[in-house]
Amino acid sequence: MNLIYLDNGATTKVDDKVIKKMLPYFNEKFGNASSLHQKGQEARMALEESRRTVANAISAKPSEIIFTSGGSESNNLAIKGVAYEKGRGHIITSKIEHPCVLRTVEELEKKGFEATYIDVDSEGFIDLDQLKNSIRKDTILISVMHANNEIGTIQPIEQIAELCKKHDIIFHTDAVQSFTKIPISVKKLKIDLISFSGHKFHGPKGIGALYIRERIKLKKQMHGGSQERKLRAGTENISGIVGFAEATKIIKNSDIKNMTKLRDKLIDFILNNIDNARLNGSRERRLCNNVNISFDAVEGEAIGGYLDAKGICSSTGSACSSKSLEPSHVLKTIGLTHEEAHGSLRLTLSKYTKEKDIDFVIKVLPDIIKKLRKMSPIK
Amino acid sequence: MNLIYLDNGATTKVDDKVIKKMLPYFNEKFGNASSLHQKGQEARMALEESRRTVANAISAKPSEIIFTSGGSESNNLAIKGVAYEKGRGHIITSKIEHPCVLRTVEELEKKGFEATYIDVDSEGFIDLDQLKNSIRKDTILISVMHANNEIGTIQPIEQIAELCKKHDIIFHTDAVQSFTKIPISVKKLKIDLISFSGHKFHGPKGIGALYIRERIKLKKQMHGGSQERKLRAGTENISGIVGFAEATKIIKNSDIKNMTKLRDKLIDFILNNIDNARLNGSRERRLCNNVNISFDAVEGEAIGGYLDAKGICSSTGSACSSKSLEPSHVLKTIGLTHEEAHGSLRLTLSKYTKEKDIDFVIKVLPDIIKKLRKMSPIK
Question: What pTM does this model have?
Fold first, then answer.
């Protein structure tokens, strides 16, 4: 069966160009970038060339990019790095961040740091007034994601960046879902730290990056060798890094336009043709590839199961917590009831998504919802 | 020019079988192992199959293996994991551990833990009496590497394991250099934590593993999702994990015999034919692929440069510190003077090393040493 993969928020297919670029670094140019001989220098050159490519993508300097093992490590390093460098203080974040931000901030609270978790409105936008009013003299860091992984809401990071600049507070954003889909320029915006993850934009798994603005000091979290500006010990994953860099060049404007068009087609169809369906997140400021809908009186996991049987891969929320029975913290925070949150379905597109894929979803989804509602005890 | 790669202690070529096994996980079986749909379950199955393979290799249970981003992360997690879980106490390690162990223990000292760094003898063997006498009531962890990355000395981990068992102390060993070259069975030996790194045994870079004996509790170091027994957040690097597992099956007994034979041929030639050359490390209990020699009155880096010009990749010590001007802490600890340490050369073989490669080294090395000694101001 030919699968229709609509779970690109969880992970993406690695692009063939990316694989082609990576391959020589497994068995030809396989040196250790710290070795002085030609095999090592070959690896070192690929590493620094990749760093330039990634820096270019956000108008940063190469020296401001370090590579990590993924988005979770980047977020852990950014937040713990600032906190432990400062030693004490207050951190502000939102209630709908990814678990790797929330759990990290909670861990810091146990270590004596203080934290404020800002509310979001019914579309998932951060409450800017509350954010403003939460700023204290000892606020050391504000961490607010660029776009939400479950509902696709794009936060007003321009305004948050201005606020941070005004108060001289370090600003971190988790751009794991948005990178390559929404342009970011660190020249235009005062963002100090940005997290990226390769496998969310057709790069390989196990590789991420962190942008660290010049003069921002972080305390290292992985001790050992002097790799990555002494901020991240461990032999550099050159094939992964080369793949990550290549992937930054993959998505074109036409891909984004196409995803937006197909996203809107799917949302419009569902809202117009299936009763008691509600779009989660914003209609306007929304990731180009995200559809998240709550259906009354059905279980999202049951919808997912029936879609899976038809060859459609979907999810009920973030893959990281998809095995947990707790409903999504994001959906609860935007005001959904326990039942509404449990009745949600996320479909995330990629540049590989075809119109006929969306047409197939449109064809099978209404019957699945109807069937499940007939069986539902909640009705 | 066909290179002769003799820096396999720094990193190795990924085996073709490993690459073949990894490839489908980039663009076919690319799911997120936490996703519930078939694409996710396909990844989950590969993950658990890989875990079984790695567990088998050391007679462990699959539930005792977690995957990390590499050897440095495994060592950081093992040592910090035990320390922060216990909260306080005393740690014993050796003076010749890899920097990712030494820097981690030093970091813990700053956090209020106490540490003892045990001496080694002139061949690099840990002083077992000193180790015994250093044990205190509050000793929580002993971390001693299996085989040294610079001089290849194989530590008596059987005796250290016995000692730890007797005193009920957690025992961690860094097996990054030894894994697949020296058999380890956690059924036979009471080792509680063992660190592994994929790229040292023909697997990919960016992937490692940690064996954690049942009932040993670690405090997680990467916060976020519930992956890897809630010990290591982040989407699992499936292609890397599959490659790591495949690599555990690569090296055969005949490869080890061959490396040992070629190692001995090279050592014998140098000691018998080049004046004022001294073998660093033990002649008998030595990694099958390690040659480390000090030459009087020459710089190791200069030898490396001349060998590189002849197409031979070597190193002067650990790649992690090869850009530093400080002489190796390992060579200084086994008693070499500053000059002797600077005059050292490491040649590390792999299963791909051919007799003609060693013969070529034998052909060109004496002249290089002679030439450098003529130029040397130290003579």
Answer: 0.96
| Domain end call among B224, B250, B276 | B250
Residue numbers in chain B where pLDDT is lower than 50: 320
The pLDDT score that the predictor gives to residue B232 is: 96
- The answer for B 70-109 residues in CB contact with A (under 8 A) is 70-73, 75-76, 98-101, 103-104, 106-107
Domain membership of residue B1 (yes or no) is no
Rg of chain B taking only CA atoms, in angstroms: 21
Which tokens hold the place of A20?
A: 């082609």
B159 contacts B146 by C-beta, under 8 angstroms: no
Sign of the dihedral defined by the CA atoms of residues B75, B80, B82, B88, in that order? positive
Q: Which of B181, B221, B165, B179 is nearest to B60 (CA)?
A: B179
Q: Could you count the other beta carbons within 10 Å of the beta carbon of residue B188?
A: 11
Contacts of residues A24-28 at CB distance under 8 Å and 24 or more positions apart, as own/partner, are A25/A238, A25/A239, A25/A242, A26/A239, A26/B13, A26/B14, A26/B18, A26/B19, A26/B204, A27/B13, A27/B14, A27/B15, A27/B16, A27/B19
> What pLDDT score does A324 carry?
59
Which residue carries 């140019």 as its tokens?
A29
Count up the domains in chain B and report the number: 2
Residues B257 and B165 in one domain: no
Residues B216 and B270 in one domain: no
SS3 B25: helix
Residue pair A204/A241 in contact (Cβ under 8 Å)? The answer is no
Q: Which residue of A has its CA nearest to B70?
A: A234
Task: State the residue for tokens 């961490």.
Answer: A143
Same domain, B366 and B291: yes
B68 is a domain residue:
yes
Cβ(A7)–Cβ(B32) under 8 Å? Answer: yes
Q: Which domain holds residue A271?
A: 252-375
What pLDDT is stored for residue B296 in this prediction?
94
Give the pLDDT of residue B324.
59
Say what the pLDDT of residue A326 is. Answer: 77
Say yes or no: B195 and B153 in one domain: yes
DSSP per-residue string spanning A277-322: EEE-S-SSSB-TTEEEEEETTS-HHHHHHHHHHTTEE-BSS-GGGT
Nearest CA-CA partner of A8 in A374, A353, A358, A355: A353
Q: Report yes or no on A200 lying in a domain.
A: yes
Kindly report the backbone phi and psi dihedral angles of residue A166, in degrees, each rounded to the nearest multiple of 5, phi listed first.
Answer: -60, -40
Interchain CB contact of A34 with B (< 8 Å): yes
Strands (E), chain B: 4-5, 65-68, 90-94, 114-118, 139-143, 170-174, 193-197, 208-212, 277-279, 290-295, 312-313, 344-348
Mapped onto helix, strand or coil, the DSSP state of residue B116 is strand
Q: Is the pLDDT of residue A323 over 70?
A: no
Per residue in A180-204, pLDDT (tens digit) is 999 999 999 999 999 999 999 999 9
Q: Are A320 and A99 in contact (CB under 8 A)?
A: yes
What DSSP element (H or E) covers A68? Answer: strand A65-68
Task: Return the percentage of chain B with pLDDT > 70, whole number.
Answer: 97
User: Which among B12, B222, B307 has CB closest to A72?
Assistant: B222
- Dist CA B124 CA B116 (whole Å): 17
CB contact under 8 A, B40 and A238: no
- Owner of token pair 């130029």: B375
Q: Provide the CATH number for the domain around residue B29.
A: 3.40.640.10
User: Which of B6, B11, B361 should we substitute to test contact with A (largest number of A Cβ atoms within 10 Å)?
Assistant: B11
Whole-number Cα distances in Å, A246 to A15, A106, A199, B30? 9, 35, 12, 18
Bridge partners (DSSP) listed for residue A177: none
CB B204, CB B225: distance < 8 Å: no
CA distance linking residue B227 with residue A72, whole number of Å:
11
How large is the ipTM?
A: 0.96
| Among A318, A342, A320, CA closest to A332 | A342
> How crowded is residue A60: how many other Cβ atoms within 10 Å of its Cβ?
23
Q: Residue A81: its pLDDT value, please?
A: 98
